[in-house]
Structure formats: C-alpha cells, structure tokens
Task: inverse folding
C-alpha cells in the first residue's frame, strides 16, 4: 500500500526496511492478538514508535514496514500516526501474505528483504537500512549511513556495548572489519554485540539474498544466514558511533525486558520518548478512571502508593505498586498490592488482590517468569474468580448452621 504525501525525501538513496512481523512468542498473552511492535509502551505510545521516530528524525524518506503476525493493530496505528510524515510515495506496508502470495507469508527475515527487493531497487536505493520494529532506542541513523558509505563495505552492523546490550557478540579488528560472529551474549555488557540494525549495500544484499534463496540448508535469516556470508567474504564492518556514553537500547523480547524497560521511563526517561504525529499528550501509565477511586499518589524508588478517596485512614485500603506496570485501560482497586507485575490493557484488578509475594500462588493463576515478573490479564482473573470458592456472607452462614441444627 502506497501513501501519497508531501515533501521530498531528505535521503533519496536510502530505503529503510522495518522488520515488524515477528510473533513475539516469549511475550505470551500480550502478543496473542497483536504484533509485538504494536504493544503499548510508556502510556499511549507503541513499541514501533521508537523506530518510526528515529527514521523520521534521520531524514529517511522511503520506508517499508514488513508486517505478518496479527498485523491489524500495528497497521492501523502506522496509518493513523506515521504514514503522513514521510515523503510522497515514501511509506509502504508490506504484509507477508500479500507480498509473497502465500498464506504463511514470509519464511524468515532474509525472505522479507528478498520479497521486497523489487520495491527497494525500483526506488533507486544505493543502501538499505534494516531495523527491527520493536527496539527501544533513540538514534540518528545518518552517522551510521555515512560510516557505511565511507567504508564501501557490503554491510555495516550497528553494535552496542552498554549495560543493556545483550545479543550476538561481534569480534572485530582495529579497522572495524568483522572477523567473527559469536553466540548470543548470556549477560548484558558483554559487547560489542549486534543491535539488530544494519546498513547494506543494495547490490551486495541483492546478490546475497538470491544466493541464500537457492541454499536448501539456509534458515533464510539475516543475522544467521546473510551476516555470516558477509563475514566470510570480509564484507562486514562494525560501527559503534563516537558517543562518550553508550546510548540506551533494549530489545523487548521477554516479559521481564518489557516490564523493566517501561520502569526505566516512568520517572527519569533514559532517552527521548517518541512524539506521536497527530497526538496531543500521551496518556499516563494508567487510565484517568483510577482518579475516581484514588486521590493522593506517591511515587519513589519504583514504588507507587495510592491513597483511596474514601477510608484513607484504613491502611488496608491503600494500593501499592512495586516495580509494576499498568497498561492503558488497566484499573487498580483499593487494597491491591502488586510486585513486579504487568497488568494487561483493559484489565480491572479486584480489590485486595496481592500479586508478586507468593510465587506458587502467582504461578497458579497468572503467568510468572523465572525472574519474577507476573503477567495479570482479564482472562486470568476470570479463571481465578471461577475456580476460587466464593466468600459466604454472615447471614447465609447463620441460615446454613440453623438448618443443619434442625
């Protein structure tokens, strides 16, 4: 789908390909109905907004967003907020089944690039910027593109070595030539590691993709198939920028990463939050409807206390959120205690619920990770309410006892 827009592209020789079709299986119920890049982040933003804002600020005028898994929410969001900010004819949604003509769509990220190669070549692109649509990152891609052009490499890999940088390790020489790609770093900080952002020479990429498509042993993945080919041909270089401090970067691939990244932005954001074109003021982490039940809110050190509007003199009526995130539409009742929890969008947490203090109880009703993040959704709460015995009122208990005595 092409959208006619307004201004000429700032960089006509670069086409950006956004990989936004992953299933996000490790986010479980959060991605059961929508693609991972469409997940809420920092209020009414979505994960994909970071990538789209980076591309816009970097002056990239032609963007192809490749979608596949549960694309409806993502496509609607992109059309509403981002399509109109790119150049005339510069925005394209490339849904897998429609581009490939197969119901299953793309079969690997290398095939995403190959299937969209005709559109890339038709745009006259000399290089292709490939970036994931679910990275939390604030980045100007122009210095990366300039470094790639100066090197004449087949591909330039943006690498990170900061505290949050976990991914495929890169071994490089002093001149930046990539010598080897290692296993994924087990712990953050074991850099440099690949950030999932690459700039390819279009001709080199086209040749590599066509050769890969003919290889029956290939998994047709950019990082596992195309990059090793570039390393073997001494055609890959690494670039980490010239900043004194590594930029903030997170790959949102697990419930733990999703929760922790959102907490990073709750008080003192480590990087710019993307501004949504056409949006006014993104909502806070929780809906304003909570104001009907709560008055004073105290936030300190990742702990949020909410005083109820009524009966605030009763400590049991206060709500406490410790290291927890409430997605848009979520509501918290008085007396709730949440520790390391994610409350799903639109989920109403009932009065007095305690989450995150008893691992066995959490795992019985909710989804709990090994690191202690607990996901709470409407469906989980409904199952819990249906399976748990209902409290018996004092009147009913008295009538039951009287009948038993007769």
Result:
């Amino acid at each position: 789908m092409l959208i006619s827009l307004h201004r000429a592209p700032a960089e006509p020789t670069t086409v950006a390909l956004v990989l936004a079709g992953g299933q996000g299986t490790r986010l479980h119920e959060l991605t059961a109905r929508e693609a991972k890049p469409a997940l809420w982040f920092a209020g009414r933003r979505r994960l994909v907004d970071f990538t789209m804002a980076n591309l816009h600020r970097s002056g990239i005028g032609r963007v192809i967003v490749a979608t596949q898994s549960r694309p409806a929410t993502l496509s609607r969001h992109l059309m509403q907020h981002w399509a109109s900010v790119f150049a005339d004819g510069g925005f394209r949604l490339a849904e897998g089944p429609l581009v490939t003509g197969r119901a299953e769509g793309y079969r690997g990220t290398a095939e995403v690039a190959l299937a969209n190669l005709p559109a890339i070549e038709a745009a006259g692109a000399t290089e292709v910027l490939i970036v994931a649509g679910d990275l939390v990152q604030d980045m100007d891609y122009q210095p990366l593109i300039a470094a790639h052009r100066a090197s004449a490499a087949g591909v330039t890999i943006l690498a990170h070595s900061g505290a949050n940088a976990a991914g495929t390790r890169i071994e490089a020489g002093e001149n930046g030539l990539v010598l080897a790609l290692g296993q994924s770093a087990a712990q953050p900080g074991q850099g440099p590691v690949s950030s999932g952002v690459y700039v390819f020479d279009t001709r080199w990429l086209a040749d590599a993709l066509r050769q890969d498509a003919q290889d029956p042993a290939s998994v047709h993945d950019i990082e596992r198939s195309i990059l090793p080919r570039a390393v073997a041909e001494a055609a890959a270089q690494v670039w980490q920028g010239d900043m004194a401090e590594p930029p903030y970067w997170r790959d949102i691939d697990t419930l733990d990463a999703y929760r922790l990244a959102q907490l990073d932005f709750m008080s003192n954001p480590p990087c710019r939050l993307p501004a949504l074109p056409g949006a006014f003021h993104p909502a806070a982490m929780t809906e304003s409807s909570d104001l009907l039940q709560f008055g004073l809110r105290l936030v300190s050190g990742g702990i949020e206390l909410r005083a109820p509007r009524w009966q605030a003199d009763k400590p049991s009526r206060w709500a406490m959120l410790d290291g927890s995130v409430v997605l848009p539409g979520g509501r918290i009742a008085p007396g709730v205690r949440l520790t390391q929890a994610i409350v799903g969008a639109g989920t109403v947490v009932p009065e007095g619920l305690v989450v995150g203090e008893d691992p066995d109880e959490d795992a019985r009703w909710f989804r709990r990770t090994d690191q202690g993040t607990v996901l709470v959704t409407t469906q989980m709460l409904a199952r819990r309410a249906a399976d748990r015995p209902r409290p018996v009122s004092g009147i009913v208990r008295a009538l039951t006892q009287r009948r038993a005595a007769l």
Remarks:
- The first strand starts at residue 2 and ends at 3.
